[in-house]
Amino acid sequence: MAKILVIDDEANLRKVLAAMLRRDGFDVTVAADGEQGLAEFNKNGADIVVTDLVMPKAGGMEVLRAVNAANPDVPVIIITAHGTVDSAVEAIKAGAFDYVTKPFDQAELSAVIAKAAKAHDVAQRSVRADAKARAAIIGESAQLQEVFKIIDKVADTPSTVLINGESGTGKELIASALHGASSRRDKPFIKINCAAIPHNLLESELFGYERGAFTGAVTSKPGRFELADGGTLFLDEIGEIPVEMQVKLLRALQEGEFERVGGIKTTRVDVRLIAATNRDLQAEIEAGRFRKDLYYRLAVVPIVLPPLRERRTDIPMLAGHFVEKYNRKLNKKIESISDDAMALLQAYNWPGNIRELENLIERVLLFADGPSITAKDLPEPVRQGSGTPAPALSAAPLEASTGEGGLKDIVRMKAAELEKDLITKALEETGGNVTRAAKLLQISRKSLQTKMKEFGLRDTTPPDGRDESIDE
């Protein structure tokens, strides 16, 4: 049950809103002004904030800025009178989720609240993006370095970018990094998940609508293209857009202009578009579900984001990052991940990618007792290497690999094979530099030397302990 904080200086309106939202199944807290509302938010938090725009002590914009600074994943909905709609639009550009006008239609407000609750739920399960998006992309693998090179080259251009990758790989982080590294960084970064919008509402969400355009359109409202003017529009799950809408989207991209639903005035905008999908759009084109001309317009700069199973050397760094994050969030004091646990994490195939890894680390920290995460703390699918087999682990049939050992022996053997392969690749990537290879693998230099000796990757160690392959 989502917790909603309602902030309004009109007592009757607070009562009406609270009663309506509680009837819809939400946990509601109310505050009489912005100052009181922020005190409540800082003390007890909220999943959604609904605030009046004009209030004594602290107005809606101040509430918006404070909530966004504290937790950008919390949607803020602005309530405004007709005379201050322009200010509400400015609030949207500053990061507000949406706005409704007084006197509001209860059905309209309920729909906005439901959409905000869904967006908050998605954000809680997604890889987080923020203003320092580039720094938030964790990893040093060769695959990720190639993605960074593309970002550096195209971020400050108007060219459209199409990000393709499986769910949970961090496509929104890449979009945020592109926006943050561009000259548009101080302009709006507007995001919309095309899969979360009903097909019959998608046009009005993208292009806005005029008053009276359809039942319930009691006032005019700008769309996401309009709100993103001067900045960046990120269309996630672009493959979900129906074919009939794709024609209108193509025109908006090519001409930089559109009309609101029910309107005749042409609106021109300057928007840099970034799209993302987990679908094979070439296959969608062959099936007649995606327009070829739109695809070529979107894929001026294609970025393919590799799944986590193809960048296993990044797993120690990602896992360490999530341990630090959830130590703070859950008030835990986990100091490390044991070598055997890390080997299992790197052997697992991660069908849910980075999102699955983050959720797993949070769950493990909740129940871990000791100062270190060990193999026994990991869930059974990870301990047993469940999931679609990774190529590195499927070199021989099961019968040929079992021998007299049981399942645990097989897992231990496969984990050792993968560990040897990862060390070999790290040494290749660093030209045999043990110090840098140890840093890449997120283990100590001494541990790496021990592992190298164990796997026969180095015959001798110099008497003085120095690594003769290092050129420092």
TrEMBL record:
GO CC field: cytoplasm
Pfam families in the cross-refs: AAA_lid_14 (PF25601), HTH_8 (PF02954), Response_reg (PF00072), Sigma54_activat (PF00158)
Major location category of this protein: cytoplasm
Places the protein is found: Cytoplasm
Highest taxon of source: Bacteria
UniProt-listed GO biological process terms: phosphorelay signal transduction system; regulation of DNA-templated transcription
Keyword Cytoplasm: yes
Response regulatory domain sequence ranges: 3-117
Residue spans crossing the bilayer: none
Residues with the 4-aspartylphosphate modification: D52
Disordered: region residues: 377-400, 451-472
Keyword Transcription regulation annotated: yes
A molecular function GO annotation: ATP binding
Alphabetic keyword roster: Activator, ATP-binding, Cytoplasm, DNA-binding, Nucleotide-binding, Phosphoprotein, Transcription, Transcription regulation, Two-component regulatory system
InterPro entries listed in its UniProt record: AAA+_ATPase, AAA_lid_NorR, CheY-like_superfamily, Homeodomain-like_sf, HTH_Fis, P-loop_NTPase, Sig_transdc_resp-reg_receiver, Sigma_54_int
Stated name of the protein: Nitrogen regulation protein NR(I)
Source organism phylogeny: Bacteria, Pseudomonadati, Myxococcota, Myxococcia, Myxococcales
